[in-house]
Every structure is written in C-alpha cells, then in structure tokens.
C-alpha cells in the first residue's frame, strides 16, 4: 500500500510538472507573439506615415526629374539611377566571389586551424558595423588605389559589406543538401567537380539566391559607408550610359563618375528646413521600403519555387 501511495504521489508530481511546463510554454508563446505584433504594428504605422506624407509625390515626374533647390520641382532621377548602377557593381563583385568562397570553404577546403580561422573571421565580419567598411574603403579604394569618389568605389564598398552575408548563406544552403546525394553521385563515378556543380550547387541554388537577394536589399538602404567615401548629396546629371550606339557598344566611363543614391538624397532633403522637402524625403523612404520588401518577397518566392521543383 505504501508503494502504491508513493507511485500515485510521484505521478501527481509529474502531472503537476507537465502542467506547469505547458503553462510556461503558453506564456512564452504569448509573450513572443506580443513582441512580434508590437514590432510589426510599429513598422506598419511608420510605413503608413511615410506613404501618407509622401503620397503627393508618387508621380512619374518625381522619378524622371533631377533634384532641384525648389521642392516642387525636385525629383529622384539621379538618385535611383545611381542606386541601380552601384547595385550592379555590388552584385558583379560580391556574388561571384562570395558564392565561390562559400563553395570552396564547404566542399574543398581542408579542415585545419587556418580554415577555422577564416570561418570565424567571415562570421564576425557579417556583424561589423557598416561605417567600418566605409572607413576601410576610404583608405583603400579612394586614397591607396586612387579610384576616387566614384560608382566603382561605392560598388566595391557595398560588395565588401555583403560579401560575408553571401558566403555564410552559401555555406548554409550547401549544408542543407543531404550527404546521400553526394555519396550517390560518387557511387556512379562522378568526379568532385561534377558532384559539386551538377548536384550540390544546383540543389542549393534556391538558398544561395535567397541570401544574395537579402544581402542586396541590405546594401540598397546603406548610407553610412557611401557618405564616408564622399558620395554627392546634390547631383543634377546622370553618369555616362554603360551602353553606346557604336562598337564595342560598351562604355566604362560611368564607373569613374560622381554619383548619389536614394538614401543619401533622402538624407539631403531631410536636412532642409522647408517642409516640402520632407514630403520628398518621405516619398523616397517609402520607395526604398517598397523595393526592399519586393526584393525580400521575391527571395522567399524563388526559394519556395526552386525547392518545390527539386526531386531528391
């Protein structure tokens, strides 16, 4: 009887403990949901305020006119063209190097202390403040390499900024591929390169692409490193066109041209005392957020689409 009473007592304690843990789990879930909703509601309110303030400037003229000292005539043409060109350089420099580095570290690099040191530094660089990259670029690209305050310098700077993000996302996407895929490929006589290119890279393409787009979305809104290297705050001309009507149909003079980008143009308008310029800044901020959301949404959609088509 004493043994039975002890078992019943222990069972009651276990049930009480399980009930307490479930209550704690529910409480944690509620707190987490409240924190999430607080952040989302705050973001939506701020976004709605930007749209409400900048709504009068949501016109074609705002995108096709140059900045002006008159707020009513000021546009965003040079800023969004500059952002596009800078992002092009960023993409062409950071993505190939980052993906190749991620593939090497995950598939080819020997596991030793030197590789571990590289991996630790790459992970740490992903959390370095962007202003540090701006100072590095100012000393290296502007003064040592004498690239000047140009589109090329800005693209290389932002390329360094997102390079750790691309490397980390590439490695995480590769790690998600089952080892059995590699073993099956080796089992039918595939070489190392065939395994990496035909199987590992193609199956991890969705995750890599997601990381690249998210990194580009971050670079689009960066201001500190671009200001540090000396981007212009007021520019009423466009860089030379990359494409010409005469052979060889390519022009690289735009790489050395002065520039501005949308975040800097927004900062410039916010620094003006005239409220009309603040309306322009609100419209610019709303456009930056919309483009960023579209890029992140595209990344999620592409990842889902690509993974859905994968047949293991």
From TrEMBL:
Q: Where in the cell is it found?
A: Cell inner membrane; Cell membrane
Q: Which organism is it from?
A: Methylophilus aquaticus
Question: CDD domains annotated for this entry?
Answer: TM_PBP2
Q: Which PANTHER family match?
A: PHOSPHATE TRANSPORT SYSTEM PERMEASE PROTEIN PSTA (PTHR43470:SF5), PHOSPHATE TRANSPORT SYSTEM PERMEASE PROTEIN PSTA-RELATED (PTHR43470)
Q: Name one Pfam family in it.
A: DUF3333
**Keyword Membrane carried by entry:** yes
Q: Which family does it belong to?
A: Belongs to the binding-protein-dependent transport system permease family. CysTW subfamily.
Do you know which SUPFAM superfamilies this protein is assigned to? MetI-like (SSF161098)
Output the superkingdom of the source species: Bacteria
Q: Which residue intervals define the domain ABC transmembrane type-1 in the entry?
A: 80-299
Q: What is this protein called?
A: Phosphate transport system permease protein PstA
The membrane-topology field of this record reads: Multi-pass membrane protein
First-listed, main subcellular location of the protein, grouped into a coarse class:
membrane
Q: What are the TM regions of this chain, as residue ranges?
A: 27-51, 71-104, 125-145, 151-168, 223-240, 277-302
Instruction: Name the keywords, alphabetized.
Output: Cell membrane, Membrane, Transmembrane, Transmembrane helix, Transport
């Amino acid at each position: 009887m004493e043994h039975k009473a002890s078992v019943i007592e222990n069972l009651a304690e276990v049930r009480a403990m399980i009930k307490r843990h479930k209550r704690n789990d529910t409480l944690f879930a509620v707190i987490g949901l409240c924190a999430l909703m607080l952040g989302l509601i705050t973001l939506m309110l701020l976004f709605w305020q930007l749209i409400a303030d900048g709504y009068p400037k949501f016109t074609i003229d705002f995108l096709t006119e140059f900045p002006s000292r008159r707020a009513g005539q000021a546009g965003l043409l040079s800023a969004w063209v500059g952002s596009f060109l800078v992002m092009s350089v960023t993409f062409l420099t950071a993505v190939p190097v980052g993906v190749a580095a991620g593939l090497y570290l995950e598939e080819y690099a020997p596991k030793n202390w030197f590789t571990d040191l590289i991996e630790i530094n790459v992970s740490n660089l992903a959390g370095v403040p962007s202003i540090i990259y701006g100072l590095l670029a100012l000393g290296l690209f502007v003064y040592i390499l004498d690239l000047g305050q140009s589109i090329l310098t800005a693209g290389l700077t932002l390329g360094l900024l997102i390079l750790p993000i691309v490397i980390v996302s590439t490695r995480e996407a590769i790690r998600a591929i089952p080892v059995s895929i590699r073993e099956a490929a080796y089992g039918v006589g595939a070489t190392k390169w065939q395994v990496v290119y035909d199987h590992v890279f193609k199956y991890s393409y969705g995750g890599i692409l997601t990381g690249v787009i998210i990194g580009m979305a971050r670079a689009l809104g960066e201001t500190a490193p671009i200001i540090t290297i000396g981007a212009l705050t007021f520019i009423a001309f466009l860089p030379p066109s990359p494409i010409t009507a005469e052979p060889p149909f390519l022009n690289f003079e735009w790489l050395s041209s002065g520039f501005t980008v949308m975040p800097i143009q927004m900062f410039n308008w916010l620094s003006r005392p005239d409220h009309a310029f603040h309306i322009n800044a609100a419209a610019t901020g709303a456009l930056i957020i919309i483009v960023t959301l579209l890029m992140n949404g595209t990344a999620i959609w592409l990842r889902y689409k690509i993974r859905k088509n994968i047949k293991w």
